[in-house]
Design a protein that fits this description.
2 domains; 61% helix; 16 helices; two-stranded antiparallel sheet; alpha+beta; 8 strands
């Protein structure tokens, strides 16, 4: 049976986009009301959870999350505050505009006091991970992989030099691996129950509903990381489309999901992690559209390489780090599909330190890198060509020519 389009008529399409627009305006208005309350006085008292601590030479920077916004502030270097501790403080609201309020801002603070608290479940998992490693940087890596905490500066730099930052920030890639493991596990547990008690039900659909429920709880537990939120919405939406025989892999579907997420969560409009997540899916769709007739084994071999080289121009507009070792990124991505679920299992059984020596050897690597940023006009031109390539095969051929030329030019700086 041929897949259907999500919209049957242009009238339906227009109604949807109007609904999205009104939803966006409403949510932005609600954020603006909160912002006006926030800046009403020059000094604002708030409570928050410490999401990260950036250690500087003479002071520390705290990343703090409140119910309505996220901000950064400085504190003394000898402060005994730790991740996930709840604090109360006064902050200054001067010179904070609405855009900064949505993005996350830096402000001065005083009278920072740690509040009595119950240990958060997220903190318990963080401490459990930490207890299985003697190296804080390795525990930082695993906690970022499992519970979306921030990385240490050194690990962040190493992952950037290796071109594997996308593997560490929890996103659709991780959700896909988790979903596969969950499907396999639930299938084993549910098959006999289904055969004996529920043979009339669609077993695959039941399993997928269970996976959606588990992933939703995981998403809430992690406090909605943008890239994972996009992946979850897309996964759930894809399940709905499949159930109704509507085409899943389409650029219109990606646009609908993008607009829905931004309309519901306007702050994510400024999220780089969401941008890279959506970009990754867009180029995956491009790959599937034009390379779908290739031999499956050839597809498997070139997929990660093509996606990596295709996203490079976007990456190097925002982040300039370039090294020879980044060419191993596609191979490391393939290996990660085994490492990730295995490392979760090892931590569950308190054997999380199994790969510590191997990871330590990677941390100790002396990787030489340079900084190369591309100008805005090249970035914009590449985006426009990519968008047109989704509709025209000739433009897609041009896009591949640009990808090859760009990456040869880029890596010529280090060879």
């Amino acid at each position: 049976m041929e897949s259907l389009s999500f919209f049957n008529t242009n009238k339906e399409r227009k109604f949807f986009f109007l609904l999205i627009l009104f939803t966006f305006i409403f949510n932005v208005s609600m954020d603006y009301i909160q912002y006006k309350k926030f800046i009403k006085n020059e000094i604002f008292k708030t409570n928050g959870i410490i999401l990260n601590i950036y250690h500087k030479s003479k002071y520390n920077i705290l990343k703090v999350e409140t119910d309505n916004f996220t901000f950064f502030t400085s504190t003394e270097q000898n402060s005994k505050m730790k991740l996930f501790h709840e604090i109360e403080m006064f902050i200054l609201t001067q010179d904070i505009n609405f855009i900064s309020y949505l993005q996350g801002f830096y402000t001065k603070s005083f009278n920072i006091v740690e509040k009595p608290r119950n240990i958060l479940k997220k903190e318990k998992i963080y401490r459990l991970i930490e207890s299985q490693h003697t190296n804080k940087e390795i525990s930082s890596l695993y906690s970022a992989l499992f519970i979306a905490t921030s990385l240490t500066t050194n690990i962040r730099q190493i992952s950037s030099k290796l071109g594997i930052s996308h593997l560490i920030a929890i996103s659709g890639f991780h959700l896909g691996v988790i979903s596969f493991v969950l499907y396999f596990t639930i299938h084993l547990l549910y098959s006999s129950i289904h055969a004996k008690l529920l043979p009339y039900r669609n077993k695959k659909f039941d399993i997928l509903i269970c996976i959606v429920a588990i992933l939703f709880l995981y998403l809430i537990f992690l406090n909605n990381p943008p890239s994972l939120l996009r992946a979850f919405v897309m996964f759930t939406f894809a399940l709905f489309l499949l159930r109704n025989n509507i085409k899943v892999i389409s650029f219109e579907t990606l646009l609908i999901i993008t607009l829905f997420i931004i309309a519901m969560f306007p702050k994510l409009f400024f999220s780089l992690s969401l941008l890279f997540s959506l970009s990754g899916v867009f180029y995956i769709f491009l790959f599937l559209k034009y390379f779908k007739n290739l031999n499956k084994y050839i597809q498997f071999i070139i997929f990660n390489f093509w996606i990596y080289f295709a996203i490079n121009p976007i990456t190097h507009y925002f982040f300039g780090t370039l090294s020879k070792e980044q060419l191993y990124s596609p191979i490391l991505t393939i290996l990660f599909t085994v490492f990730y679920p295995l490392s979760i299992l090892l931590h569950i059984f308190n054997r999380g330190g199994l790969f510590d020596d191997f990871l330590q050897s990677i941390i100790n690597l002396n990787i030489n890198s340079i900084e190369i940023f591309i100008p805005f006009w090249i970035f914009l031109f590449y985006i426009v060509i990519s968008l047109f390539a989704s509709s025209y095969k000739n433009v897609f051929i041009l896009l591949n020519t640009l990808i090859i030329a760009y990456n040869i030019w880029l890596f010529s700086f280090i060879f």
